[in-house]
Amino acid sequence: MAAQSKLISYFTSERSIKDAIGRLASWYVGRRTTISRVMYVVFAAAVANRVRNTINTQKAAARKRAEKEAEEAATGGTTRTDAGKTGKKKVELNREFFRNLWKLLKIVIPGIRSKEMRLLVSHSFFLVLRTLISLYVADLDGKMVSALVRGKGKAFLLCVVWWMGVAVPATFTNSMLSYHQSKLALQYRTRLTQHIHDQYLSKMTFYALGNLDDRIKNADQLITVDVSRFSNSLSELYSNLAKPTLDMIIYNYQLSRNVGGEALFAMSLLVNLSANLMRALTPPFGRYVADEARLEGEFRFGHSRLIDYSEEVAMFHGHENEKLGVDKSYFALIKHVNYILRRRLYHGIMEDFVIKYFWGALGLLLCSVPVFFKIPGVNALSLGDRTESFVTNRRLLLASSDAFGRIMFSYKEITELAGYTSRVSTLLDVMKDVQKGNFEKALVTSAKENSALLSSRGTVSEGTSIEFTDVPIISPNGDVLIEKLTFHVRPDEHLLIVGPNGCGKSSLFRILGGLWPVYGGTVVKPPKEEIFYIPQRPYLSKGTLRQQIIYPHSQSEQIRRGVTDDDLYEILKIVEIESLVDREGGWEAEKEWKEVLSGGLQQRVAMARLFYHSPKYAILDECTSSQDLDTERIMYETAKHLNITLITVSHRKSLWKYHTNILQFDGQGSFIFAKLDAEKRLALEEFVARSEHNLLNLYS
């Protein structure tokens, strides 16, 4: 037993440990070249294997996605009738993410001579400069501590002077980095917003997204919020990846010279293994961000819908029901946010332990190598030199580990960027798709029987008249209102359209205005600038009183047409509202005109707008419902005097005399198009009324 205790004491003695380490070091120095080559070969093989696995994973994901798309195409899973069944996109760092990101990068950085590229180059210059300053500061820090340990006051004071001197370029560089990052975010947002506005506000895309397609429910949030977040995330990501990557390369190179490449390699191997473990345990924050943005949009959409239908909700006293809806969407959002916070809590604990403490311990071991072991090619160091070496290496190591930590933390930022990229690219893809006439919308049950009709398209051409030949009237949800509609409106042949609600009158105008697709037949119509539409509730834009009359023209367009304010005043005289100019403060007065003007005045402003534009055709949808007969007469006689062909929707018998043809819908899918004899029709109406009165008297 005593012999065993002596043996244990011998092997655990300090001298034995030092002897063992010394023999191990001697053995390593003698075989250093071979060991280094083996380590580099293993490292290269590991990198190659990692790349191969990544490529295989991407190929497998692409193959799986292609098989799924083929299956959906075979079963009609993504057709118009099953639009509501289409699943959400999975947000992850895959080939689709990089393809979408590259597409957005080409928008926000249009060329090498663009302002964004110049900002990137300038930003990169300051990133390099900041790293070089950090290297100098690390070396200066070591010299300062060495001078302090050796008791060299003059050298120490000189280091302090240099320390204060380097603060000037260092602080300037840091401020320039922040400035460039903010400028890049602003430029990215400007480019992307302008591009989206060009697409969104062209070819009636804004209308199609909200009325003909169900894929984008909250375009306003995507354009205003998600584009801003994407731009900020993209600008931050460049700084958070470029500088740490550069720091790691330069700092690790300097460390390899100070402590030996093998020790650095061994530490890097341990760090890489722990990093892989962290990556495997990292939650899918990109998907979480995309879901959060979607829930934010649904919550915002609920309030927007409440504002749009506030009158109807108030009339039905449906505020409690609406409160349940908005509360439900809010608590769904909060539940998801709390879930993200919990996942970030657990992930943050793991990250802090690994990055700050585990990697920190490895760093201390690495910095101690030159102190306890002789590095081949490095002379023996004195106490002051070893202190300087330790402080410098420690400073470099802290900077390198901080850079690696920022790269690891940036993985979350990349996944969040993937979420924003997915939402913004989805908006662009859907806008491009609807501009081609491809829509995905939930359809009524009966629409499935008309799938062939919904997938077809009619022909639309320009002409001097309006002609519909065998054109089906179909609503966006697939409800067939009229199977084949045929009628014509030629110049000076004024048309009156009558029929019950929901029979297809407004749908006809939407097809005529190019808002709804033509699913069959032939449509001939004049250019859009020759057709003007006045609804029952006129749209009053945000702007001056003048802009209400000339909308959608601008003042420059008014001047180009040679129309003066005096001409506009004469137009207001026709509809007897010229007093508005003085009463509201002149042509440049800006107000919320929908609140300032009554319903009748709004309709008269719309009449003045019609006379200003003087189109060849005018669609009047109950636009005189709030007017007396004299005002109605003035409007129709003035329009005819201006050679405007009228297409009117109204049930007012006083309007019959202003029209030559009638298009009557019965609400059951049938219609009659014929000449309108106002006197004969009025006589027939009076005869029917008398007959009904006599029948009532007979049975009373």
Automatic annotation (TrEMBL):
According to its UniProt record, what is one Pfam family this protein matches? ABC_tran
User: Which GO annotations describe the biological process of this protein?
Assistant: fatty acid beta-oxidation; long-chain fatty acid import into peroxisome; peroxisome organization; very long-chain fatty acid catabolic process
User: Where is it mostly found?
Assistant: membrane
Point out the coiled-coil segments of this chain. Answer: none
Report the locations given in the UniProt record.
Answer: Peroxisome membrane
Q: Which GO terms describe its molecular function?
A: ABC-type transporter activity; ATP binding; ATP hydrolysis activity; long-chain fatty acid transmembrane transporter activity
Bilayer-crossing regions = 119-138, 153-173, 353-373
According to its record, how does it sit in the membrane? Multi-pass membrane protein
Q: Which residues form the ABC transporter domain?
A: 466-693
Q: Which UniProt keywords apply?
A: ATP-binding, Membrane, Nucleotide-binding, Transmembrane, Transmembrane helix, Transport
Offer a single GO CC term for the protein.
peroxisomal membrane
Similarity section: Belongs to the ABC transporter superfamily. ABCD family. Peroxisomal fatty acyl CoA transporter (TC 3.A.1.203) subfamily.
Q: What is this protein called?
A: ABC transporter domain-containing protein
What is the source species? Ascobolus immersus RN42
